[in-house]
Amino acid sequence: GPLKVPREDPLSRFRVKDFLLSPEKPVWDKLESLYADDEPLEEEPELDEFDDLIEIMESSSRRGEEQRSALIEDTTEIREQSLKALARG
């Protein structure tokens, strides 16, 4: 049959925009200067705070060593003693 073509072109009002040649800046770029924060999130720890932290870590390490030394390492000692004696320490 015959080719049917509409009288008006539906794309006649359609405008082509070249996005690559003129990229638009994001909206937040305009507001970034208003909300920019130049200060660091955390301040450097002072010497006293750093010394306290080292002391806490060392005491924790010492406690861990004490707990490990309190454990029975020799398996023959476990075999020779009764459960009651082992429970008492």
Can you describe this structure?
It is a single chain. With 89 residues, this protein is mainly α. 51% of the residues lie in helices and 0% in strands. It has four helices and no strands. The longest helix has 24 residues, at 47-70. The relative contact order is 0.04. The mean pLDDT is 78.
Characteristics:
89 residues; 0% strand; single chain
Give the percentage of residues in beta strands.
Answer: under 5%
Biggest sheet: strands, sense, closure?
none
Helix content estimate: 40-55%
Order of helices and strands: HHHH
Uncertain segments: none
Quote the distance from N terminus to C terminus.
Answer: 104 Å
Task: Tally the helices.
Answer: 4
- Return the average pLDDT rounded to an integer: 78
**Class computed from helices, strands and strand pairing:** mainly alpha
Radius of gyration: 39 Å
Can I get a quick summary?
With 89 residues, the chain is mainly α. Helix content is 51%, strand content 0%. It has helices at 27-35, 47-70, 75-80, 83-88.
Describe the secondary structure blueprint for this structure.
Layout: H1 27-35, H2 47-70, H3 75-80, H4 83-88
